[in-house]
Each structure stands twice: as structure tokens, then as C-alpha cells.
Amino acid sequence: MEHLLQNASITTTHHRLLVLILLLTACCSIPVTSAAQGTDLGGGVITRTPVSDQSRIAYDLRQMFESLPDDGNRAKNVYMAGFYSALYDSFGNALPNKRSIRSFSTEAGNGKFSSEPTFLFHMAGLSNNFDPNTYDLHYTYADDFVMSALQDSDSGTLAAEAARALNLWMYCAHELWQSLDQCTTASRADINNDVLGLTDNAKGAHSIDEFIAYWIGEGQTAGSSTQGYALYALTQQAGQLFNTLNPTGEAKANTNIKLLYENKARTALAASDTCTEESDTVEQLWHINNSLLSQMYVPLLQMLIHNMVQGDVKRVRMYALAVVPQFAQCRPSVYRRLKSALLEKDYDGSKRNDILTDLQSLYSCLGISCKDIGAYQTDVLGACGDPPVSFPMAEYIPSSPVREYAELDLDIWNMKLLLNYGEKAYPMAKYLYLHGKNSYIPADENDADAEKVHRTLHSLAESDFRKKAIPYYEAFVEYFNDNFYSDRIILDSLGRKGRWGDNNADFVGGGTFDQRYEVISTILQYQVVHLYLLAEIEDAVEDCIKQDVTDNDGNLHSWDEVAALVIGSLEGAGQGGSKDFRDGQFIWSLANKMSVDFGSAEDGFALVNSEIEDLLYAGKGMIQSYDCADFTKVVTRLRNIMLIPLIQSVIKYATKMEGLSYESNADAVAKGEAFTLCALPIIYHYDKDGAKVIEMNMLSPLTRSRFNPKLKGTQMTYVEEGPQAVADAFWKTMRALELPSRFVGSLDGADPSKLGEIAGSASNMKLSLATFSTSVAISVLGSLYLFFG
């Protein structure tokens, strides 16, 4: 015991007596384990399970705040060894060591958070160019900062503030994902919950209770920013600065967190069939967790902005470290600017407005709005405003609310970040695929207050709506002999089965993590989304033909949805889309990327995208004037030229795959096969002979669907006939669809126009220049009216 007293650096009789009492209490008390006896955290929050020991971590924070800056050693000892929050063994016996705030960060080094989206997004944000091989360099980012601050005698209480905003915040996020993981395990039919102790842990209920205990903390007075030390108190402080307090005096973010905990999480976990194979508890928890995290971001962003205005460079750095890495899940180019301005160099106050603009542009990606953040001292900062309905996508101005539809690209980007980490993140990537995250629609589109339902990539892959994509839906089903071809490839790959499974007996070694990443990403972007986009195009034609003059907004909405799935939310508002081609996730971005390789760019962007933009505006004008005959021609043209980036991608990877073995672990093999599967059914529809050449050269025998793999029995490598043969195989389809050679371009050794130039132009649509110009003018004038009011 004397050793413990010395480590705590407590010298006065009063403090020694306090430690003695605490140690005796810890030795003699056993925690209540009955789920019927929860903990009253105040403010109406009573947990289902006992979490008083967890809530006492707030007293460690209080000790740190009170010790700093005068007694840094005491603050350090409390931080490192813990003081107030007791730990127990599996039999309920008190342990000599305590729960410490430091352990909330250092346990990351043991892989405790390595399957959790929030932590992985943070690591992606701190890493070098999203490289998972460098994640481990940043596992203890929180502890590193706190320990450094404890050595800084001029930092005031910064170490305590950091321990709360960095360590405790991320551990709260951990508890949310721990709850989901426990519920998932309990729902498996092959699991004995009693043996694993999941029954005693209430199948995730205890973890969700621990979350709220850590957030509020013991000693917190409801609505107070001074009577409390944990994250609830921080949120109260931030709410006062940004005028986001309810009439009761409680910060809206705290109220929302409490309501989500009480009315959503607890209800879901208290149902009689909770966490069973037949229930939807896992899906509910997935969405509840993401909603809770959105509210948890609010105080971090508010305090970051507050300290930017105050010019407090050290606290700007700390709050930036707490929240800016989370923007890695948003638009990559904007995130990189924020990282450069706030993490890689000292904050420069002269850049404040630019930084704020970037921050605000990414709010929706975190599930929050300007209203959630509030207005900070409006005489210092201008009011924040959320993007209007007419906010452009690569200069296309929608007339209806489709941004949330376009944000399906965020689901793809988030999945790519998770898949990039490897096997441990597969379960969460699967949840994102199955349940969605960023894109949603009202349950009742006529009721703005109705609870919103998430639009998911999985629903796109299985939807009957795809049948509208005539004739391509039938072409895909015929080619794969499977109505759910995309979904099968994705779920097999996530389950490490099928062609890209790592236990595939047909190929030595099977697929690698990197190959599965390429396959899943490519199929999502250019097969799942692309076919659904083609269905949206046909749906717009149907709406036009209806000639319902009372539903012009609805008709325009169908066409705006087409633009949303062509361009996406990540391209930005400017002409041509983002200058950083790594931003976009849809066909628009692929066209820009391929144009660099194929020499088919103009003014830095793809020629084909310039025509797509013209066609989008022409179609919009024709819908407004109900010129459905010419609109149908625009639709045909649009549908056809969107095949160009896929053709280019197959040809590009033909040059990379040439001579590689079917057993190759090269990423290019997976990417090339996936692109081929996105384009080949369409080519098969127009030119079976060309499709045969492409399949035999670009697909392994295990992947081929239409042609007997024994036709070339000696073939053991990809692209044996050479990349030019693959390029030539597209020519008949290009001619049939009038795809201009100048839009496609060429590569060294692979020129798809070698068999003959294809002119192909807007004139082939038999649209008069006058009709086209008038359509564009009508659309632009309407859009300008919407934009400027």
C-alpha cells in the first residue's frame, strides 16, 4: 500500500487518508452484477446494468483538472495508473489496479479497436495517404498527445482536456461498437450465449450502458457545464458558446444522445427477441451507433472552431487531432487540405475562413448540419448555411433534392476504407453494404417529418427496379445466369469464398485481401450502381411519356437522380468535377481517370464527360417542355457513351495482365477481371464473337460464364492474344453504339479504333442544333432562377 501511495505522489495526511478509504472500499466491495440493478447517472438516465465504477472515471478527469498546471506529477500518476474507477476479476473480486484513462488509448496497441469503423477511419486519417501499413504508427495518438502535454508546463489544463476529448471520446465510440459486436455474436445460431457470458452481459446492453456512463460521468448535474468533468460537461460548454442549448439549459447534442440511448438503444436491446437470428437488432444498433456518433462529433467541432477564433494554437491542434481524422471518410481532397492546415502545421489564423468553409462542406458526411453546430458569436463569424437543393454537382444544377441519393458514393468510399484494412474490418464493411450509412430517403416522401430509411448498396444490387434497365438487365442476367450476380460476388468476397476466397482449392493461395478489395470496390461502383443508373434513365423516360403536367417536379426529380448516380456528391460543384480524380466514386470520375491514360481529355477533364453534361442539361430542358421524342434520343445517347470508361478500363488492364498467370496475386488481375465483368454482358448483347475474345483473354477459367474454358486448353495466362486483340474486340460494339474514337482514345499497343475511326457525334441523334440549344437554355434559366432565387 505504501508503494501505491508513493506512486500517487500524495503527501498530505488528508490525501493519504483518502487513498486508504478508497483502497479499503475497493478491497471489501463487490460490484452488483444483477441486470435489474442499474446506475442512476442523473438527469433521468438510469442504466439497465451497473456501471457506477465506469462513471467514476470522471473523477480521474476532475483530479487531473484540479492538479494542473501546478502539480503535473499528480495529474500524470492519475492519468497513467487510475485512481477512482475500480476493476474486478471475473468472480467479482476487486483488483489492485484501477481503470485508467491512459489505458483507453494504449489498449489500441493490443488490437482492441482494430475492427471498429470509428477507430479505423481515424487511423486512415492520420496515416500517410490512407496506407493501412502505417496505421500502427498512430494507434496511441491520444496517449502520445496527452503525455506530451503533461511535459509542457505552459499548457495549463491541456493534458486533462486532451484526455477527455481524445482518450475518453474514442473509448465511448469503442463501447458502441462493442455492443454491436456482442449482439452479433449472440445472434449466431452456433453460439452458446451462456458459455460465452453474453446472457449475463445482456447481449450488448452492458456495453451501451458503459458508453452512457463514460459520456455523462459521476458527479454531473443535468444541464451544467461546471458540475461535471466528462464529455457531457464538455458538450455543455460547447453548447453555450454556440447557442445550442435547449430551453431546459441542456445542450441539444446531449439531449439527442440521451434520447438515442434511452428510446432507441435500450429499447432495441430490451426486446424479448433481441440479438437473435430472427431479429433486426444488429441492423438497429448499426444505425443507432452511427446516429450517436454524429452527435458526438458536435462538441469536438464546436470547440475546434472556438479555439480557431481564439487563436489558441495548442488547443486547435488538440481538437483537430480529435475530429479532423474522422473527415477521412468524407471527400478526400478536402480532408487533405484540412489535415495540412490543422495537423501537419501550426494553425494560421489568416486561413480561418478557408478552413471553416472546408469544415462546413463536410458536415453532412458526418451526419450533422449547420443547425447542429449552431452559430458562434455571429459578430465574429458569419452564420453557417447548409447547401441548397440547387447546389451543383460538377456544374449540373439539380432542381430537386437528390444530394442524399448522390451520397451513395460515400458508402462506397467508406467501404473501401474499411476493406483496405483487411480481414478484421470485413464484418463492419458488410454491415455498411447491407444496411447503409450515408444515403437515405423519407419513409413517406410526402411527410418531411417521417423517419428516414437508409438507401443501401445491397438494395440496389437486389432491387426489381433494375428490370427497367432494358435491354441491359436481361443481358446481365443471361450472361451470369443469376438475377443477383453482383450481390453474390460481393458477399462471397466478403466471406472469403468463391473466385477470390483465400481457401479456394482451384487456385494455389486463392485470392488476397488486396484482390478482394479491388473486386468488391469495382463491382460496387461500376456494376451495382451503374446498372441501377441505367434503370433510373429508363424510369425518367417513362415519367416523360406520362405527360403529367401537374408533376413536372417529379419528372425533373427522375432526371436529377440520373445525374446524382452519374456524378455523385464527392465531385464538388466546379466544371468537370473535382480536379483530384481520387475524390469521385462513380462513372464520372472513372471517365476522368481513363481520359488521362487514353489521351481523351480536354482542359484537364474527359471529353466524354463534357458530352454527358450537355446531355444532362438537354434532357432536363426536354422534360420541362415534354419533348419526349427527342428526350428518348438523348437517353439513348447517354446510355451508350457511358460505356466508354468501362471499355477503356478493360483495355487498360489488358495491358497490365498480359502474360500473368491465372494464379497471380497481382492486384491488376482482380481489377481487370472485375472491370471485364462490368462491361462484358453489354458487349455480349451486341457482339458475341467480340465478347468471346474478351472473356477468353481477360477472365480465368473459374470466372468465365459463357464460353467453354477448354476451347484454348493450352492457355495458362491472361491476354495470350495480346492487348490489341482485346481492344479490337470492342470495335463492333463501339460502331453499333456510335461511340466516337476521339472520346475513347488509345494506349500504346492497344488502340480500339485500329479497325477504323468512328466519328459519332451529337448530330447522330438527329437533334437539330436549335432544339438542343433551346433545351439547354430552358434548363439553365430555370436552374439560375433556383440558385439565385
What does this structure look like?
This protein has 789 residues and is mainly α. A two-stranded antiparallel sheet has the order 1-2. Strands 3-4 form a two-stranded antiparallel sheet. A hairpin with a 5-residue loop joins strand 3 (86-88) and strand 4. Helix 9 (158-187) runs antiparallel to helix 14 (281-310), helix 23 packs across helix 31 (667-686) and helix 27 crosses helix 30. It is globular, with a radius of gyration of 29 Å.
Give the helices and strands, then pairings.
Elements: H1 2-7, H2 13-28, E1 40-42, E2 45-46, H3 52-55, H4 57-67, H5 72-81, E3 86-88, E4 94-98, H6 103-106, H7 117-126, H8 141-150, H9 158-187, H10 193-196, H11 205-216, H12 231-241, H13 252-270, H14 281-310, H15 313-323, H16 332-342, H17 352-361, H18 370-373, H19 403-406, H20 408-421, H21 426-435, E5 440-442, E6 452-454, H22 457-462, H23 472-480, H24 485-494, H25 513-546, H26 552-567, H27 587-598, E7 601-602, E8 605-606, H28 607-624, H29 628-641, H30 644-657, H31 667-686, H32 688-698, H33 723-729, H34 731-736, H35 741-744, H36 769-788
Antiparallel strand pairs: 1-2, 3-4, 5-6, 7-8
Helix pairs in contact: 4-5, 4-9, 7-20, 8-9, 9-11, 9-14, 9-15, 11-13, 12-14, 13-14, 14-15, 20-21, 20-25, 23-31, 24-25, 25-26, 25-29, 25-31, 26-28, 27-30, 28-29, 28-36, 30-31, 30-33, 31-32, 32-33
